[in-house]
Amino acid sequence: GIHYLSQHCSERYEMIGQLLKEEEHDLVLLQEVWSESDYLFLKKTLAHSHPYTHYFKSGVIGSGLAVFSKHKILDTFLYRYSINGYPYMAHHGDWFGGKAVGMVILDICDLTVHAYVTHLHAEYCREKDAYLPHRVVQAWELLHFIRHTSGGADLVILGGDLNMHPRDLGTRLLLAYTGLRDSYTEAERFEGCEEGITLIAENPFINKKELEPFENGIRIDYILFKGLSRVSVKCESLSTTTGSVPGKPFPYSDHEALSGVLLLRSEEGGGDRPQRCSAEPDPGLVDMVNEARTEVKVGLHSAERMRGTVARMGMMGLALLLVELVIALVPWLAHSTEHAFPRASFYLLGALSFATLLLTALLYILYSTQVKTLQGAEDQMRLAVTGLQERLQKHSQTQPVEQGRVQGEPTSTPANSP
Amino acid sequence: GIHYLSQHCSERYEMIGQLLKEEEHDLVLLQEVWSESDYLFLKKTLAHSHPYTHYFKSGVIGSGLAVFSKHKILDTFLYRYSINGYPYMAHHGDWFGGKAVGMVILDICDLTVHAYVTHLHAEYCREKDAYLPHRVVQAWELLHFIRHTSGGADLVILGGDLNMHPRDLGTRLLLAYTGLRDSYTEAERFEGCEEGITLIAENPFINKKELEPFENGIRIDYILFKGLSRVSVKCESLSTTTGSVPGKPFPYSDHEALSGVLLLRSEEGGGDRPQRCSAEPDPGLVDMVNEARTEVKVGLHSAERMRGTVARMGMMGLALLLVELVIALVPWLAHSTEHAFPRASFYLLGALSFATLLLTALLYILYSTQVKTLQGAEDQMRLAVTGLQERLQKHSQTQPVEQGRVQGEPTSTPANSP
User: For residue B112, which residues of chain A lie inside 8 Å, CB to CB?
Assistant: First the structure.
C-alpha cells in the first residue's frame, strides 16, 4: 500500500481492517504496510479484537511489517537484511523499504511462541534475475536468525512474502535448515486458489508480464511452523482468499491472503528439539549450501565487476578535473588575462567532473558494502559446508555400530523375557 | 590498525601475533582489524596455536572483528547495528566501519559456548557527545541480540571495546538485562593498570585531549561472562597489558589488551538460566530503560531537526532550478538568441542547484533512516518498560502470599516431624 501510487489504497485498508476484525485470528502478520498512518488506522480498527500490536520500523520508508495479536506480545526484535537491491533502482523500491525479519515473542496459553514476519526482495524477472544472490543471502540470513533466536520457543511460526517459489533454492534451504514445515503441504484441509497460489493472474493490481511463464500464478507467500520440546503441532486447515471480494469491485491486495489453523498439543517430556551436533544432517543440505555458494559467488563477481567499473569512472572524473586544472593554469602561466578556452564549456566540464566524482564515490561505497556482505555470506556458507561434511562423516562412521545395536535387539529380547 | 594512517601498523601486528602465539589463549577476540591482509597475517601466524578462526565482514571497510580459537567454531552470526554515526563525519570513520556484533558458537570440552565480539561507536567528546543516542541504541541492540541468541548456550562470553565507562547507561543496561558479569569486578586476582583502565594517558597512539577529564585513563574494554544451566563460572584472574612492551619502542595498540582466566564447573541439574516471566525483575531496570528512552528521544529530535533543515535546503535547490528555468526561457519567449544573463554564472548556478538537490536527497535518506531506527528503538523500549512494570506489579501482588508461605514453614515443621 503506497498512497497515490497504489490504487484504492484507503478503501482496501478499510476492507482489510473489517475482514481481520470479523475473522478474529489469534495472530495476524502483515507485510507492505508502508505508511504508518495505515498501520495506525488498522491499530484503531483492531483495538478490541487485537489489543497487542507491533510495527517494525527500518530503512527509509520502513520495513512494512506489522503484527496484530490477541495474545500478549512480550518482546520484539528486528533483523535487517545486510543486502537488499540497489538504491538507484528506485522504481523497484526494495532498497528504500529496509527489508527485514521481525520477531515477536508471544505468550499463548502459557506457551512461548516466536512468530516471525518477513518480506524478501521481489523477483522482477525470473529469466534474468539480477537480485537472485540478494534473495539467497536474505534467505540465508533469515534461516540463521530463526535458528539462533528460537532457542526458548515452544512454537515457531514464520509468515510472509518470501518472493520465492516452493522449489526455489532459498525455500529449500530455509525449510531444511530450520525444520519448519510448510502449512500448504501439511494442511489436512485446503480451500482456496489452485495449488495454493497467492499471486494470481486475474489480480488487477499486478503486472501480468512478471508472472510469465506461470500462467495461473505462483505461490510465494507462506505460513511455516514447527513445535519444539513441549509441543506437537499440526495444521488443521489452510485457506487463501480467491481474488474478488463479494460486493466489492476489487480484491484486498495484490497478493491473496493466507489463513491457517494450527492445532497445538502439549507433549510432556517429549522433545523434537533438534540437537545441534548429534542429529544426522540431511545429506542433500551440502549440495544445497554449495548451490547457494555458487549464487553468492555470481553476485560477488557482479558486485566486484561493478565496483571496478565505478572505480574506472572515478579515475576518468579525476582525469577531467586535472584537465580543468591545466586549462585554468595555462592563462595564468602565460601571464595572460584572456581565457583560451570558452568559459561556459570550462564550467560545464568542471561540473561534469565533480558530479562524476561524487556519484562514483557513492556507488563505490555501495558496491564495496555489497562485496563485503557477499564475501561474509560465502565465508559462513563455506564454514557450514565443512561442518555438515564432518557431521556426515562422523555419522557414517558411527552408523554401522548403531545399526548393529538395533539389529541385535530382537535376538536379545527373548533372552531377557521371562 | 589502518595502514598508512596508524603508526607502526605492520610491526605491531607482528608483535600481537607473537604475543598471542606465545600466550596460547583458548579464545581471542579482536577489534579494529580493519585490513583483511592483517587478518590473514594473524591467521597464518596463529595457524598452529589457533586453528579455528573467523573474520566478520560488514560495512564499507569491514567490521574489524576477528576471532581466533583453539576450539572448534561450529557456527557464526553477525548483527549490524542499525545506527552508527554519519558518513560525512569521515574523519571519525565509524560509519564506514560497519559496526556490528559477531557471535561464534564454540564447542569447548563438550560445552556450548556463545562468544560475542563487538566494537561500539567511539566517544569523541564526553561533554558534548553527539553520538550518545547512537551508542545507547547500539548497546540496546547488543543486549537484545545476546538475550535472544544465547538460549542454547552453556557459557556466554562478550569481549570488546564498548566505548562506554563502567557506570555509563549502556553498560548498566547491558549488565542488568543480560545478567552478564564484569570480569574486572569479579576477578579473584587482578594484575595490570590501575582500576582496570584500558585506555591509558601514556599511550603514544591516542589523543590525550579525548581522555579529559580522566587524567589517568578510562576503562572501556570488557570481558563479560555468565554461565547458564549446566555450568557455573568464576573469573580466577584478569590482567591488562601495561603500556610499554619490553624490548620494543611502542605498545601493541592504542588500547591495553585484557586477558582473563575463567574457571568452569559442571553443575548437573543446577540451573541459573533466567526464566523469562517468573523471575523478579530488577526495579532499577525501569528507570534505566526510561533513561535510555530519554537519550533516544534526544537523538530522535536532533535527527528530525536535521531532516527538516535538509528538506528546506532541498527546497532552496529546487527554487534555484526554477530560477534557472525562467532565465533559460526568457530569451526563448522573447524570440531572441541573445542571453540577457551571463552564460558562466548561468551554468554555475545550474551546477550549484543540482549539487544542492543531490546532496540534500542523500542526507534526507540518511536522516529518514535514522529517524525510523530511533523511533523503532523507542517503541521497543516503551514495550519493555510496560512489560517490566507489569511484572513488578504482579510480583508485588504475589509477594505477600509467597512470604506467608515461607513464614508459615517453621511453624508447620514441628507438626510434620515425628
Answer: 276
